Amino acid sequence: MENHGSTLDRLLAALSGLRGHDDPQAARLRALLELPDDGRPETPRQRARRLGLWQRVLHDIPLDERSFDDRFGPAGRQATIAGLVPWCLGHPARDGRHQAGPDELFGFVALFLLTLLGLAESEAQRSLSPTGPAPGRSGQALTHDCAGVCGALVAEDAVAEVIADVYSPERGSAARRPPAADGPAAREWRAMQRKLRFHRHGSTSVILRGSTADAVHGTRPEFALKLILYPFTRIATLAQATRTYADTYGTSSTGSRHLVRVWASFDSWILMDFVEGRTLAELVREEAEQATSDARGASSLSLDRLREKGLLLFDALEELQRIAREDPVHGRLKGVHADLAPSNIIVSAADGTFTLVDLGRNYLYTHTVTGTGGAESRYIAPEVRAGESDIARADLYSLGQLLILFGTGRAGAEGVVPDIFYMRAALLARFLEDLVDADPTRRLLVFSGGADPARTFARLKGDFLAELGMVQAAEQDESELRVETGWRAWRELLRPLAGDPGREWRLWRMRRQRSDGAEPDRSSFANWLLAWSLLSAVIWAVTNTVVITWILRDLDLSWGNNVVALVQRAAGTPEGLPIVDSWRRDDYHVPDWQANLPARMVGLSYAIAAPKYYQMLFSGLTPLAVGWRAGSLTRLAVATEVIMRLMAVVPCLLVLAVTLVEPRWWPLNSAIGQILTWLANVMTLAFVHAVIRRSRQLGLSTLPADDTKITGLSSFAQWVPTSLFYSVAVLTIGTALYLRLLHDVYVYAFAVTATNLFLFYAIKCGIGGPTIRVAIVRACLAAERVGRCR
Description:
The protein is of the alpha+beta class. It is built from 27 helices and 10 strands.
């Protein structure tokens, strides 16, 4: 039996010495490839033998560069490519003679080169880190000048003829006998016009485009021909999947708009409609480059882009699921794409719709083919990459990762939603978490709804639009949400209540307007959270008004306070204010700015900082989302909920007591307020850590596996000892001041005031607050998922 490995060895040796088109090496190659040197026609038997030899030689090429170089030594893959490119590109124009030998020699050598280039490109794609930078610009290969080499070679008629002969199903493949001559694959192959153009590289293939030989209704339909590189066809599972692709995924009878029509398939190729357009990967890459040139940072979330592209994706997945439900043949697919990545979504140039291509498992991800899986492996569900048989929920994971891509312009980490969602769109973070859990049984824990599983994507589209609509309403229809950093973050200081309660009011109103009655628990939480947010805002307004009014009274200023005058006139009290002035202790005099100034300064600083603390960290969040059946975690959630809500009112009540009743209480009330803040930090941090532990015990992947990667957690942990130290210091010094053991009242009052305004309000809550809130939001959302795990 002929040793085809030795044939490849001899072929590489001959190619390494190839210089011109008429030198002795060319004659040696023609003999080696069994091409007649004298131009005599071949017999059918000779032709079949020659094409079978070519197939087996291509089939024998090592898949990766290391194996190639280990086998062939100095004549390595890169050296072979470097030698063949100038020879093939320098192929002289034919002068009208149609000798089979020289043209077919060039055609095969060019196909051999295209195979080597395809393998190099495939290996480069597989070696890309999922978390690394994106590939080059649209249409560019990673390893070579694709347009200048691949495009030029495929355009040659001799190359197209060799491709048509070598890949012909009528001649079989290196691994399988040919099908019947009248089979669908053979019929479609014969109808294919031989004029081909290069389109792009695939992960294990090259994709060409062309048109049929016969016109249909006056036009020649364009096709895309996906040629599996011959060395990959020796992988039995890949060849089997390619052979049965048309039977499994053919959609010619379904009237599909979002699934490409498959004509036929064979062991080494798939023939389908050519969709004019670009891949989603190319468009996203261009948008990312544009965003970089516009100096837009990674911390932005485009709601318009998320809605536009998200709806297109939902429409395509709905159709896939509908076809699986209605078509008895494709019902076997159960509506699963299984390889839903940006490069497998074509954005139509005509109307911008999404067309899904390359359905089914990609064997890059199951380690059937060596490599990391490439940059797009992050979009593929873990169970698909693990080669598991049950992949019914795989597209949910891919959907979540693609929605993250649409919103932020870049892919998220595996199973983890980016921080920007928790900072500016917690409702969308909740929706995405329910899609991207690594465990397929933990997907749709929250948004299950008990609906028909066969209509999953239709129902999820409604949920997606509802959550997106509430985010847009809460953010007053901003199209792009940002997290400001550096000096821009100081603008947050201009919002003393961090945007609440207006945000909570708009969310509550949107939930009331939903007519589907979905998520009654969330509606009750919305009522609860809105009430506390309103209460916090009201007491903030009342406290600040009272403190400022009493400051002006201490200064005995005539500030045109007609409201006070009206109250005095109505109560018949020419001096003072009715009722509230009667609460003052006997030694509390107004006006007396020298005696009351420390209490006024400290009281006003607390009245400003305390509501900011509550609204920035706790407003709109509740640990009670864990439910009532989580045991000790539920009890901890209740305790945390109590301390959170106390922070909405108690600090301001302490300030009102100092302002209305007794100014001398301000050192003690300051200590009480600081101790309460410390308790709130301790309880909230304990709840966050408890949720993290329980989540990891249950195997939830939506929280980062490493605590250091949970934004805000380490900073929040530092708040506990610093707030304890400050509480002890305030209690000690405050008690001494109250007992008149210390007399530097003004110095201490200025210190407390400055600490409240600059450290707590500006630094911790204003600038550091958004990152701390990320950790708390993550914990509250994870708690809800923990409560639903059984």
